[in-house]
Amino acid sequence: DAQVLSETYRRLAEALPEGVEVLYSLKANPNISVCGFLGAQGAGAEVSSLTELMTAMRAGVDPADIIFLGPGKSRADLEACVSAGISAVVCESLAELRLLDEVAAARGAAPFPAVLRVNPSFHSKGSGLSMGGKPRQFGVDEKEVRQARPLLDALRHVEVKGFHAYMGTRFLDHRDVVANTESILRMAEDLATDLGVDLSFVDFGGGLGVAYFENESDLDTAELGKGMRGPVGDFRARHPSCRIIMELGRFLAADAGIYVTRAVYVKESMGELFVVADGGTNHHMAAVGIGSFVKRNFPVVHLGSPSAEPAGTYTVTGPLCTPNDTLVKKVGLPEVRPGDLLGIERSGAYGPTASPGLFL
Ligand SMILES: *Cc1c(COP(=O)(O)O)cnc(C)c1O
C-alpha cells in the first residue's frame, strides 16, 4: 500500500531533527517497487547483497545514497560497490577493510569511502533482537577499533570516513532509541579523535519497531524526534559537514503489507476449530514465530466477511506437516469457510524473503 508507505516515511521524516537522513534497509522487503517508491520520497538505500545493490540502482536510488553492509562480503561484492561508486562500504572486519583497499587500488582514482561498523562496548535496552554490545559476528569490537590506527594510516586506496553501529531491532520505546543515538554519536566522536578520522559519516542504525502483539504499542515518532533534537543538534554544531544516517526496514515497510492466505479446510479437533490455510511458515516465518520463545499472534483479519463480530475461536495453520506451522492460535474471527481469505496484517516487512524459501 503505497499510501501507507509514504505516510509512514513522511511521519518519520517530519519528526526527525534536521540533518538526519533515512536509508531504507532492503533486507526488510527487497521489492524493487517498494525501494523505488521510497527512493522517490527521498530515502536512500542500505543494501547487504549484490542483488539488493542492483535492485536499489535499478529502482533509481542515487549511488551516492547507497551503503553496503554485511559480515560476509565477497571480493565480487566489493568490486561492484567500487565500480558503482556508492556512498560507502560499511566494513565489518579489519580484514574486509584490507581487502577493500586491494580492490579499490585497481580503480586508481581518489580513495574509496569506507565506514567501520563498530560493535560497541555498551549495551542497549529495549531491543527484541540485539545485534551489538555482546559477542557478535557483526562489526569490529570497539576495543579493537581503538587500536586500529596503524592499519587506517596504512590504507592507500580507502579512506575511513566514519562509523556505524546497529544495536538491534524492534525498539518500541523512543527513550531507548534516543539513548542509543546519544551513545553512538559520542562513541563516533571519540573514535574519530583517537584514530585521526575526519568524521564525515555516522550511521546509528535504527531498528525502530512496530507493534505486532497484544500489550505492545507503536513507537511515538513525535517523542522520538523531540528526544533526538538535543543530541543530534549538538553533534551537528560540532560536525556541520558530517552525514548523519538512520537505516530502517521494518518501521517503513511493515504496515504497508498484508499477507493473504486462503482457507483450504475448516475442521474441528477435540473441541477446537482449525483453519488449514494454503500458506504458513514457508511464506511468513515471522508470523508463525519460528525462533521465538513464546508463540504470539500477529493481527489477523477475515477479508471479505460482512461482519467483524467473532463467530468462533480459530487456530489458523499452514499446510506443512509439522504442528509448528501455526499462523495464529485461538483467535476470535467471523465464521471462516473453505475458500475465505484471511489477512495477516503488518506483513510488509520480513515476509516471504525472510522465510525459509528465500531467506534474506
Ligand atoms: C536488518 C538490519 C537493518 C534493518 O533493521 P530493521 O529493524 O528492519 O529496521 C538495518 N541495519 C542492519 C545492519 C541490519 O542488519
Structure write-up:
- The chain has 360 residues and is α/β, with parallel strands linked by helices.
- It folds into two domains: 2-254, Alanine racemase (TIM Barrel, Alpha-Beta Barrel); 258-344, Lyase, Ornithine Decarboxylase, Chain A, domain 1, CATH 2.40.37.
- 32% of the residues lie in helices and 25% in strands.
- It has helices at residues 2-15, 32-41, 50-58, 75-84, 94-105, 142-146, 149-154, 174-195, 221-238, 250-253, 285-288; strands spanning 20-25, 44-47, 66-68, 88-91, 112-119, 129-130, 140-141, 158-164, 168-169, 201-206, 243-248, 259-269, 272-277, 300-303, 312-317, 326-333, 341-344.
- Helix 1 (2-15) packs parallel to helix 2 (32-41), helix 1 crosses helix 9 (221-238) and helix 8 packs parallel to helix 9.
- The site of pyridoxal-5'-phosphate has 15 residues, from strand 10, strand 11 and helix 10.
